[in-house]
Amino acid sequence: MKIEGQPYRSLWWSDEKGCLEIIDQRWLPHELRIQEVRSLDDYADAIVQMRVRGAPLIGATAAYGLAIAMANDPSDASLAAAYDRLHATRPTAINLRWALDRARTALAPLDPERRAEAALALAREIAGEDVDINHAIGTHGLSLLRRLAVEAERPLNILTHCNAGWIATVDWGTATSPIYQAHDAGIDLHVWVDETRPRNQGALTAWELGSHGVPHTYITDNAGGHLMQRGLVDIIITGTDRVTRRGDVCNKIGTYLKALAAKDNGVPFWVALPSPTIDWTVSDGLREIPIEQRDPREVSHIQGAGPGGIAEIRVTPKGTPTRNDAFDVTPARLVTGFITERGLCPATEDGLAGLFPDLIARRA
């Protein structure tokens, strides 16, 4: 995608510098800062501190992290230690484990002297696959939006939550890919962008959409149900950090409330789902998916741009206890369906199995 006309991806490997370069997302939407990531500790910190964020992007970053570890020390002990270090960074998004498992499986049988080159090639492959997957999600989502736009007979109103855009992936995004492709195809649409407290990732979505010329409006998290009641939302599309084999969706905190409001108001609730985000080993999302507890300071303080530059201020009374559950689980019964790289399907075990029989077979 583009920033002020310049093409970017969220991360890219620099052969000249011999390191990964990322967009440091802590400073968006106010400043665009590029950071070099050189050591295993740098990779782990980038994930924990949300310099990179979004399940697909975390997975790609972790793959490059293993590659840098193998370049420094390709031994079995180094491979195991790097895997454990990166795996411990964030517990909820399944793409992290998916990428690490894929890399470890490929690298473990190799002679140590072959691992560095193979690991870097695999990281590039995972990043490239992510771009292709997200573009395909957009193509299938476009058919859905095209149909709804004809029925609406006015600008199509889409509601998003959190940021499942191109900067949460390597490119295109998951939930935003259908929006970008529909906009580029000339479909008249408008996006309601949830602020998504406490880290206000909706501001990243607004920054993305504005850069691409997509009409949008930034709203508070609690406005979505109100807009649905008044017929101002035609469809909700969110991303996801993990989906169980039966269709439960784990996504940014607040997603469950949007799904409840959608159900009550008859608004279709769709989830853009890349296949690496499916956890075939888990059935009951509420009982089995670990929910990340992040720093309470993210709730008690907020970052913004002022006359003196970017600053952080406290918004709660001093000493007030805070809690920061980063995700929630939306039961499959509240999800209309999934938009995947292989097409659309209902949010059921049979629906997922019908599109991905080969992936189920690998888990059998």
Low-confidence runs of at least 5 consecutive residues: none
The CATH homology group name of the largest domain: Translation initiation factor eif-2b, domain 2
Task: Return Rg in Å.
Answer: 20 Å
Task: Briefly note the structural class of the backbone.
Answer: alpha/beta
- The number of distinct β-strands equals 18
- What is the overall shape? globular
For the largest beta-sheet, the strand count, sense and barrel status come to: 7 strands, mixed
- The CATH topology of the largest domain is what? Rossmann fold
Q: Taking all residues together, what is the mean pLDDT? A: 96
Please give the share of residues in helix: 40-55%
* DSSP helical segment count: 13
How far do the termini sit from each other?
Answer: 38 Å
**Number of domain modules:** 2
CATH class of the largest domain: Alpha Beta
- Strand proportion: 15-25%
CATH architecture type of the largest domain: 3-Layer(aba) Sandwich
For the largest beta sheet, what order do the strands appear in spatially? Answer: 8-7-6-9-12-17-18
Task: Report on this structure.
- The active site is at residue 241.
- Keywords: Amino-acid biosynthesis, Isomerase, Methionine biosynthesis.
- The protein is an alpha/beta fold and 364 residues long.
- It has two domains: 2-129, translation initiation factor eif-2b, domain 1 (Four Helix Bundle (Hemerythrin (Met), subunit A), Up-down Bundle); 135-363, Translation initiation factor eif-2b, domain 2 (Rossmann fold).
- Helix content is 42%, strand content 20%.
- It is built from 13 helices and 18 strands.
- The chain has helices at residues 40-48, 55-72, 76-87, 94-107, 112-152, 176-184, 202-212, 224-229, 255-265, 285-288, 297-300, 349-355, 357-363, and strands at 2-3, 6-7, 11-14, 19-23, 34-37, 156-160, 189-194, 216-219, 235-238, 242-244, 249-252, 269-272, 278-279, 301-306, 309-314, 327-330, 337-340, 343-345.
- The strands form five sheets. Strands 8-7-6-9-12-17-18 form a seven-stranded mixed sheet, with helices on both faces. The protein has a four-stranded mixed sheet with strand order 13-10-11-16, covered by helices on one side.
- The longest helix is centred in the middle third of the chain and has 41 residues, at 112-152.
- It is globular.
- It starts with a strand and ends with a helix.
